[in-house]
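Ticket #337: bound-state structure for EPU.
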Amino acid sequence: MTPLSNIDLAPYTSFRIHAVAEYFTKATTIDELLEAVAWARTQGLPMHILGGGSNVLLTKTVKGLVIHIRLMERVASIEGTRVTVRIGAGETWHNIVSWMVDRGWGGLENLALIPGTVGAAPMQNIGAYGVEQASCFVELDAIDVATGESRTFTKDECAFGYRESVFKRELRDRYVITAVTYRLSTDPVIHAGYRDVSDELSLRGIVQPTVGDIYACVIAIRQRKLPDPRLIGNAGSFFKNPVVSASVASALRDQYPLLPLYQQPDGSSKLAAAWLIDQCGWKGAREGDAGVHAHQALVLVNHGSADGAQIIDLATRIQQSVHDRFGVDLEREVNVW
Ligand code: EPU
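RESOLUTION: The complex was predicted; output attached.
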């Protein structure tokens, strides 16, 4: 394998920020992936796995080898109402959701239009409108970068949490996800409870929504609120919604009765980071080409030629003002390279 050198990663990432990868290669088969992993190991170089590039902020030259995962595979088996699908890590998430919805297979329709690839979905346990990918997850296959061996991870082993998994924590940089298996249904439970979704359904006069209705509503909501990465660089939510203790939540609620908070099963509360940022006056703010989206304060945008440092600078100032005003610390959701 001979990797390319000095490749601009801007076209491979949704923030569209220019930064060069020292070495770059694509893996379209497991053999190509193993070869690339072995090459980086023998050269003693760090390795970086790039999927759809929708959750990455580039801040400098990326040292070592960037492997762009292009593993494509779609296998489905149906037993009664149960549908099991095995999807290659390189498939585009939204294409897969559309493919499922077209066939009437329900479970992941609330996650329509989430940018990125299937391999990245379990990594950060993507979620939207009341559903996380974990709810349909069965297992995944991954390559151990130290040995090149393939291993299957069950749902428990992935230890999914809010935008979390074992691959972001204990096993960070240790495995490359190659395929993910989901369980869907031809007679699924419909999740229409999230406020934006129920409002959109009412607007459309839909009382008993189908999988296709939810899919169409979610697409409409996202197109209204979130910037299209093809038109304006961004990486979706830049920060996570902060989770605070019950006592902190109730003190904040006393002071700010309109603060949206969502009680968690363990008694803690998840706060709407977008609301906190919005209250600090950041929505629509712009400093040079780094900005805050005009319709969703949680999304930072690149209006054209912002660099990573400018986005980080803006993010840091937002974190500071939310901390000063509410005493709450915002954690980045985006990976910084
Ligand atoms: N809000 C504001 N100002 C804003 C935007 C929202 O006050 O500028 C308020 C809303 O009124 C609402 C609350 O904040 O009460 C939450 O807003 P929203 O429903 O838009 O959801 P979010 O918590 O900001 C999360 C996910 C999104 C996902 C939506 C919908 C995270 C970090 N983000 O955003 O995921 O699409 O819920 O389920 O959990 C992503 O991860 O990239 C992403 C876009």
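RESOLUTION NOTES: The two ends are 24 Å apart (CA to CA).
TICKET STATUS: resolved
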